[in-house]
## 1
Amino acid sequence: MVTFFMFLLPAVLSFVIVIIVPFIFGVYYSFTDWNAMTGGADVNFVGFANYAAVFNDPRFLHSFLVTVAFAVINIIVVNVVAFSLALLVTNKLKLVGLYRAAFFMPHLIGGIILGYIWQFIFNSAITQVGSNLGIGFLATSLLGHSQWALLAIVLVVVWQNAGFFMMIYVAAIQSAPAELIEAAQIDGATYLQRVRNIIMPLVAPAFTVAMFLTLVRSFQQFDVNMALTAGGPAGMFMGQAIPTTELLALNIYNTAFTVRQLAQGQARAVVFFVTLALVALIQVYFNKRKELEM
Amino acid sequence: MSKKIFMLLLTLIGALAIFAACGNDQAGDQDVEITLINNKVEIDGALRDFARLYEEMFGVRVNIHSFGGETPYAPSLAALLAGGDEPEIFVFEGMTDFLAAQAGGRVLDMSDQPWVNDTSMEFRYNGRVYGFPVALEGWGLGYNTRILREAGIDPATLTNVNAIRNAFETIDAMRDELGLVSVVSMAAGPGMTWVTGLHGTNAYLSLGLAYEDTRIIDMLNNGQVDEQRLLYFAEYYNLLFQFANPSTMLVGGFDDQIGDFATERTAFIHQGNWIDPVFEEWGVNFEMGYVPHAFLPTNVNGIFVGAPSWYLVNPRSDNHEAALAFLQFMAGSPEGHRYMVVYAGAVPAFYSVPYSPAGPLSRAVTEWSARGAVYAWHQNDMPAGFGMDTLGPIYELMASGAIDAAEFARLFTNAVAALN
C-alpha cells in the first residue's frame, strides 16, 4: 500500500504543484487587486469587481465574439481539410509517404515563426503580385482589413494544423476493417457512398478527438495571432477604438502584461476557462453520441 | 524490483536535499555580489564588460540579467520579484513603475549620492531622488538634410504647423524628382503603437511647455483633456499620416519604417535616436537632424529629451550599499563614462562626461539638449498600457482614414475620461 502511494506521489505531486495550486491561486487573485509588483504585500479582496469590469469592457466582448467566430471557422476548415488530406493519402498513390511528410511539415514550425513568415507573404509577396498584375484587391495587404485579417489567421492556422489532424484521421482510416469497405465496394457503393456511410461512422472517435483538440486550440490560439496581426487592424466596436483580431488569449496577455492589471487578467482567464470547459464538454457529449460500438 | 526503485527514489530525494542545503550554506561565505536587471538587450554586452572591469578593480561581482526583445521586461521582472528574488538594482520607466516599486518597499532614497549634483535627469518624487538616469534619449521629426536642401527648405524654419504643412506639400509635389515614396516615414500599425500611442502622445503632453510643467499630463491622469490643444495635435498627426506611405504605416514594422528613411525614399521620420544602431548596422551615413513635432500654430523650439529609464536601488536586497558604490563609479569615473558613451552608445545624462556619441541622431539630440531646447517626456507617466493599448488603435483608425481629426479628438477625450 505504501509502495503504491509512493509510486503515485511524483505524478500527483507535480500535478498538484504545476496545475492545481496555480489554478487555485489564479482564482483567488481574480477576486483581489493583486499586481505582482507589490510582491503580495498588500493584496486586497475586491469581490466581483474584476468580473464586473470584464463584462463591461467592449474590447473584451469583441475579443470574445471574434474568438467564437474564429473557432467556428477554424474547426470546420481544419477538420474538412485534414479529413480530405487523410482520404487522399490513404489511397494507393505514388509517393504517398512524401505527401504525408509534406503535409505534416508545417506543424513542426513554431507559431511565432510561421506568423512572421506569413506576415511577410501577406504584406510583401502577395501585394507585389497584386500590384504587378493590376489586381487592386490584392495590392494592399489583406492584414489591413479586419475580416480578411481574421481569415488570414485561419489560413495560417489551418496550414499549420491540417497535417497534424490528417495523421489522426489517417491512423483511424487505416484501422477501419478493410473487409467492410471491400464488401461495400462489391455491393456497388460508390467512393462517396463508402466515405459517407462506412468510413465516416467508423472513424467517428477520431472526429471526437480531432474536433475537441481543434476547439481547444482555437480558443487558446495565441502565437500566430501575436506574430501575424498582433490584434490589428483597429476598428470601432460599441463606440470604442479596439484591435479587431485580438483573440481571447492575446486579450488576456495584453490586460495582464501590457496594461499590467494582473488581477483583471486573471479574472478574464477564469471566464475563459469556464467558457472553454463548458463548450468542450458539450461538444464531446454530442460527438460521443455519433460514435459506433463495434 | 519495486523496492529497488523505491530506494533509488529515496536516494535521489536525499541527494537533492543535500544539494539544497549546500546551496544555502555557500551563499553566506561568498564575497559581496550584486545583481542588476537591465531592460536593453542592445547594451547587454557593453554592460557585462563594464561589470567584469568593476569586479577586477574592486572585487565586487556584478551579475547582469537582461530582459527585452523577445522576453518583455516588465513581466519578467514581475515574475522574478514574485518568485522572491530581490535584485540590488533594476530599471524602472516612469511614475507608474516607480509607484508600484515603492508600494513594494523597493526604492532607496539616493538624494545624498554625489552623482545627483552632476545631472538634471535624476528621478525625483516628493523632492527626494530615487532614480539614476540610465541615459538620455530624444526624438523629434527626423529629417534627411540633403532632401530638404534640394527641396529648398530650411529646417530651421520648421517651428510651427503651417511651416511644416507647407514643407510637406512642397516636397510632395517634388516626389518623383527627389525619388521619394512618401514625404514621411510613419508607423501606426498594431505592433507599432509605441510610436504613436506612446511617443506620439508625448507631443500632446509636453510640446511648447516648460520642462517642469506637468499641467497636461496631470489633466490626463485626472480624466481631462485640453480641447483646443488636442485638436491641433490631432490635425498634425493626421497631416503626418496623410503624407506617409500607407503600406509601411499600416502593416509595416520597425524595419520597414526605418528602411524607407534609410534608403532615402522619405524626407522625414517619426523616430528617436535609438534607431542609430540600425543605421550603423546598415552602413547608412547621410546627414540628418531633428526639427520639433511642431503641431501648434505658434512657434515652438525644442525636441523631446529625457531619461527613458532609471536604475533604482532596492533596499530589500542584501548588498544595496555595494550597489550605490557601483552606480557612483558608473557616473563618476572615466571608465564609467567610456562605458556609457563609447561602448553603450548612449547620450550621457551626466554633465561631467567628456565623450559625445557617434550616431547621427544621437548627435542631433546632444545639440538640441546642449542648447537647452528640450521638452519633457511624460508618456511613461500615463497609466501602464494606456498609450499603446488604448490610444494606439485610435491612431491606427485615423491613419487608415476611417476617422478624421475631430473624431480622433472625440475618441481620445472619451478614452481619457474613462481613466477617472
Note: Chain B touches chain A through 43 residues (CB under 8 Å).
## 2
Amino acid sequence: MESKENIAIRCENISKEFSAKGRKIRVIDSLTLNIYDNEFVVLYGPGQCGKTTIINILSGLEPPTTGEVFQKSEKVTGPGPQRAVVYQSISLFPWLTVMGNVEFGLKAAGVETAKRRQRAQELIDLVGLHGFERAFPNSLSGGMQQRVGIARAYCIAPSILFMDEPFGALDAQTRYMMEQEIIRINSKEKRTILFVTNNIEEAIYLADRIIVLNNCPTSIKKEYKVDWEKPRDYTDKKFLELREEITSIVDETL
Amino acid sequence: MTSDSSSENRDFVKVRNLTKSFGDLLVLDDVSFDVRKGEFLCIVGPTGCGKTTFLNCLTKLYSISSGEITIDGEPIDLKKQNIAYIFQENSTMPWLTVEENIRFGLDIKKVPKDIAEQRVNQMLDLVNLRNFASYYPKQLSMSMLQKVGIARAFATQPSLLLMDEPYSQLDLNLRCRLEDELIALWKREKTTVIFITHNIEEAVYLGERILVLTNKPTKIKREIMNHLERPRKISDPEFVELRNEVTSLIKWW
C-alpha cells in the first residue's frame, strides 16, 4: 500500500526559522513526512508547537527556510487549487451567501455558472445545509459556519485538504457532531487529509495515523497507526488506553 | 440543635421554581434544586439549553421571571454574600500584574493589607504562579490566565463559586491538570462550587453530583450522584459507565 507512487505529499528535511528582535527562532527542525493517498493523518501536539506553520508550508502558503515539499512529483512553491485549507477562525466571506462562499473557488477558477452551482449544491447538501443556500454567515451557528468552510474547501475538489484545528472554537458536543460529520463526508468524497488538533480525543477519533509532535522546534516524537473501523467509540477500552498512552508522552510544559 | 445545622448544610443554596423567559421565549422552566454547603455540583446539558442563563440568574446579572433563589436562607444579595464567578473567557485585567489581579477582589472587599498579602501569596503558590507574580496578562498563556482567574476567585474565600466552562478553550492535557488543581483547592477551602460545562467527561471527573438539563425550555432531566473515588481515572470502567449514562441523557449529535 505504502509505496512511493502512493505518496500524496511529502516534505523532506524542512526547517523554518523566524527572526524576532534580531534573534533567529527555529520553529521547525528538519521535518520529513510522507502522507499517502486517501490517508487521514492527524498532527497532534501541544499549543504553539508549530503545527500551523507545518500546514502553511505544506499547503504552499509559506516557504520553508530549508528543505522542499512535493505533491506527487511536482514541487510546491505556492498555494494552488490542488490544496485547500480549512481554518479554525472560520474565515467565510461575510458579504456572500452560503452558496456564494461555497462556489467562490470555482468562480475564481472561471467555471461557468450552471456547472459550478451544481457542484456547490452537491457539497451544500453533503454537509447538511440544504435550505440554507441563501443565508449569510452571520445568521448561522458556529457549527453551521464551519460546515460552510468545509463545503467550500471540498468544492474545488482538491486532492489534499488541510484542516487547522477546524473545531477548536466549538463546544464539546458540537465538536462531537462535526467529527462524526467529517468521517461521513470524507467517506462520500474521499480525500487525503492532514488535520491539526490539540485535542487527543479528536485525534484518535479521526486518524488513520497520528503524528505526535515535539514542542518548538517541532519534530516528530512518535507515530501511531490507528486501523480500527470508523466511526469509533470515544469510551471504547482501546480508545481510552491509546489516549492515556499518547497523553503520557506529550510534553506538559505550560 | 444538630438537626438545624444539618438542614442548613443540605440547603445552602435553594432554588425554587426558577423561571426565566426572554419575551416569548421560555428558557428556564420551573427549576428547583438545592446545593449542600461545600458540595461540588456539576451542571451539564445539551448545547444551547440555557446553562449560562441559569448562572446569570444566580448572580443577578439577569432578573428572574418568577421563583426564588436563596443562599443560607436569604435572598441573593451580592453585597452581603460572597459569590465569585469564573468565566469561560479570560477576564483578567490587562493593566494589572498577576499579583494585582489576584488581590483585586480583596481590595474591593477592604480586606486588611496584611491578610490580603497572605492570601495572595498563598494563592500564587497554590496555582504555581509564584514566578510570574509581576507579569502582565499579555505575557501569559491561556492556561496561566485561567489560573489567575481561579486564584482571584478563591482569594476572596467565596461561600459560593460559580464556574462557567472555565477550561473549554484549553487542550485536554492542560485541562486535566487544572481540574486536579481545582479539586485540591476546593477540598482545602471547602468552597461550594457550581460548575457548568458542555463536556460530559469533565462533569463526571469533577462533580460529586451532576444535574443533567433538558433542552429549552430547560428543566432538570436527571440528578446523578457521583461517588467515584478521587483521583478519578477516565478509563476506569465505572467512570466510563457513568459518562455513557450522562451522554445517553444528553446526546443530540
Note: The longest strand of chain A covers residues 7-20.
